[in-house]
Fold these 2 entries.
Entry 1:
Amino acid sequence: MVEKHRHCINCGISIPPNEYFCSKKCEIEFNSRRRKAMMFQWILFGLLFFVFMILLFASAKS
Ligand SMILES: [Zn+2]
């Protein structure tokens, strides 16, 4: 089954099948949101790594 239209990946409204966004504004909005999400993921990863290192050092001492 082939869909005859897509949905804007930012706001979800119907758009032509060869487009990803309904407007330039949505594209910019989506990219900045994705950047923020990626940054958050890296911060989370960094924190997990930090906690892991602390646990590693704490267990190595005893
Ligand atoms: Zn949109």
Entry 2:
Amino acid sequence: MSQSQESLPDDKISTPHEFIPARYFGESNLEASRIIKISPFKRIVLLTHHRAYAADFSQYQWLFRHGTPDFWYEKPSNPEYTLKGMALQPLASAMTDFAPSSTRNDPYPTALEMPRVWASGALTTPLDDDIYDCTAGHSRDGDFMGACHQCTDEKSGAIESTDLVYYLVISTSHSMERAYNGGSATAPSHGRQIYKLISCGSREAAVIEAFCAAGYGWNVIFSCVMRLGETLGEHEGKVERVDSLWKLAEMKSGGEIRVFY
Ligand SMILES: [Zn+2]
């Protein structure tokens, strides 16, 4: 296959499902990163799949704790933003692109030239993921390398009947000056970073949101899954990472909040 610079990238996708497919445990690793063209939006996107760690989550705790989904925020400069009771001020008219930009606080989310989308485990792990590490001693029919079907059936049944919340952290630049270019803004000189949280009830819905955010030219910089009702908010107890999605279906041991990422 020949690949000229003009035709870069060769990778074109047109649906959310092609953009971020489900990935079962034990499937061959996805490429570390790909440059993809999202055809319906004519947008070139850097798609990455590397694993998320605690430091990544802690970077956006301020938004999980104090932000309201769908509003744009700047990261508070006050280092005490993690303190209980601090209220974030959403930037005004974040969702109305065509509202007059009458105040300096009116955010205009910029379409980035090449947004990046980080599709880590939260966006790729299916509810019926295969479980390899059987701890119940089920018969494996001599196949000790494969998934335990009994564990997989039990755990996927439990997680499928658990109400979950999928979160995306979206970011882009905030342009103070509105510039029109065929209806969409381009800002060669980037303003300050703005962030918003999107929450969804399923992986499929989260993948659609990620697809559209990238199409608008916004980054998807983090994603995670929690149980519905377990919100960080004013929670002062432990926040515990679970390493498998199905573990969110288990009974809690205490007052901790569990997060899969
Ligand atoms: Zn088993």
